[in-house]
């Protein structure tokens, strides 16, 4: 019997078929039925592919990658021309609308900043609140207070919280935070709805400082940042007491660099080469801001304002003093510079035993 008329078996179903009628595909011998059931043709390029390897039952992988993306939320395949992008990730229209309509945005939500107040620096606040529920209704009550006259704050999911969310402000000067954003009403409403911040053990109060305010040139900004890092290293015990965090909390969420205290420039060099990432007391990983993460969350208005005033005073001194002046300055001298218009800070330092 010639090879052409010799019978062979289908590799999938085992049916005996003539070699002449057998279909050879991808190194496999198939009968006609198995070929029709298990192999399909890419509707875009026409190439035959295993049906199990096809995308959407009709495309080869190469054509699918060219034509489609997968929704980051629901996993649905979306034609590339119909994809909606949020924070660089692809979404179908339905999921995109849900994300943008949500009162509590996802962790990666980052709107274009709106700068409020004249002068510099501008401070962006992240206040975490917990144990009262991650509910849009509650977040909406916060926003109705904070955004009554302008879009001052928004709310975001934070995976480090048990059952809450974080309140994030657009950047504003200390004067604007003090006199225009209704922080006391925001904090009181959170308390009224059963949220905790200091007492939850999970919450922080993070303050972002815009780098552009720290000097006219990149070199000047770096010098100012160096003095801030040096200050934290030099007065770590005082700052930890000020922050209300425990050593364990600080180690987890806002660790000390533990770098050289010979001078500010060496401190900054040590911080940048530490490899500690963003969970540091002075987080340097953001492009446009320096983030002070050391402070424990609070819903007490005076403590909240004392924290902002502390950051503002530190920035003022870091901008205006020399490295040498920072190196010789004592904590007592720093505390004595607190002016009358920072009454909450002055009172807080006294309460915490930090006047000297």
Q: Overall pLDDT, averaged?
A: 93
Give the overall silhouette.
Answer: elongated
Which residues form runs of ≥5 with pLDDT under 50? none
* Total beta-strand segments: 17
The share of residues in helices is 25-40%
Largest sheet: 7 strands, mixed
Kindly report how far apart the N and C termini lie: 106 Å
**How would you classify the helix and strand content by structural class?**
alpha+beta
* Residues in β-strands, percent: 15-25%
- How many helices does DSSP assign? 14
Q: Please give the radius of gyration in angstroms.
A: 30 Å
Give the neighbour order of strands across the main sheet.
Answer: 11-13-14-12-15-17-16
- The figure for the number of domains is 3
Question: Could you explain how this protein is built, in words?
Answer:
The chain is of the alpha+beta class and about 350 residues long. A hairpin with a 6-residue loop joins strand 7 and strand 8. Helix 7 crosses helix 10. The mean pLDDT is about 95.
Question: Which properties best describe this structure?
Answer:
single chain, 356 residues, alpha+beta, Wheat Germ Agglutinin (Isolectin 2), domain 1, 3 domains, 7-stranded mixed beta sheet, two-stranded antiparallel ribbon, 14 helices, 37% helix, elongated
What is this structure, in a nutshell?
Helices cover 37% and strands 18% of the residues. The chain is α+β, with helices and mostly antiparallel strands and 356 residues long.
